[in-house]
Amino acid sequence: MTAFNLETASESGPPINPALIAEAAQRLAQGGLVAFPTETVYGLGADASNPQAVSKIYALKGRPSHHPLIVHIASQAELNYWAINVPHYAHTLMKTFWPGPLSLILPRAPRVSDWITGGQNTVGLRCPSHPHAQALLSACAKAGIYGVAAPSANRFGHISPTTAAHVTEEFGPQLLVIDAGPCTIGIESTIVDCSGMAPVLLRPGSISREQIKQAIGIPVQERHANSPRVSGSLPAHYQPHTPTRLWQAHEEISNCSSKTGLFAFQKPKGFEGFFIPAPSQPDAYAQTLYASLRNLDAAKLQYILIQAPPEDLEWEAINDRLQRACAPHNTLQQKREF
Ligand code: TXA
Ligand code: MG
What we know:
DHBP synthase, 2 domains, binds threonylcarbamoyladenylate, binds magnesium ion, 4-stranded parallel beta sheet, alpha/beta, 9-stranded mixed beta sheet, globular, 13 strands, Rossmann fold
């Protein structure tokens, strides 16, 4: 993807509604759930210090209880509440990319409970740049809530939401959603494990490995056997309900009918199925990907084909999501193996 641009990263969109932010902060303080926008995808939030509140996230999402959650903080002022022994390179990453679409896995402070970390000795922290998320997190911090645990606001394994309407599709109208229009990035944050001597890339995102290397002067390493577990790295994730697979432009589409869906850079000659054009640039592609998958899914097709993007590094995060979106549906087995 094009390097994430810190200067132009500020969001435009609907104005912040202070009354809604206050209501959302109050619901969180009372142990309730609130969905809110970030620059990546919408999150399903709960007070990260309240075990009953956090358990509601797992119940609503249908997420296995040993999968860890990212804690969202308003600023670096909350860092030491959650993390200890933060390595120097992690401080540099925070200084360079926060607030923004970067989550860091850090050694957890003793007060951080197993129900946030999935029993691991690390905690995931993210400081989002989205103004509505910032407003909510700041209101929470003032009310004594120093972190909001928030996974993507979708049922476990399903497509992440990039609009408030997607969240309501997932969980129904009774969930309070702060609606700030479509997310500008559209795929989840880059996750870097900073619990060891060198950074490890756990999930690619719009902040690229090249940008990370430029910021800290050392290359980010690949996941290894002892890396923390990340549910986004399960083989099947981000999935439409309709069977979906990658398609190469030179492949013939067999049994093509009006019930065939295609998300591709160009419509093949004679294709008569349900076609959604894919943007040719990675940033625009990421922004529209999940909404396009949802539209294809809603069309009740027999199957969906997604044209495989180039293999270049700038498509790395997108190719990562597409591989998982197109993996065989084996979520139940994964739940046991994770
Ligand atoms: O962009 C994002 O990161 C969005 C927005 C809402 O902030 N959140 C998001 O959360 O994608 P979720 O839960 O869908 O994905 C977070 C990933 C999971 O794969 C989880 O396993 C991993 O982060 N994670 C969280 N805490 C961790 C920890 N302590 N160690 C290892 N992985 C962790
Ligand atoms: Mg998710």
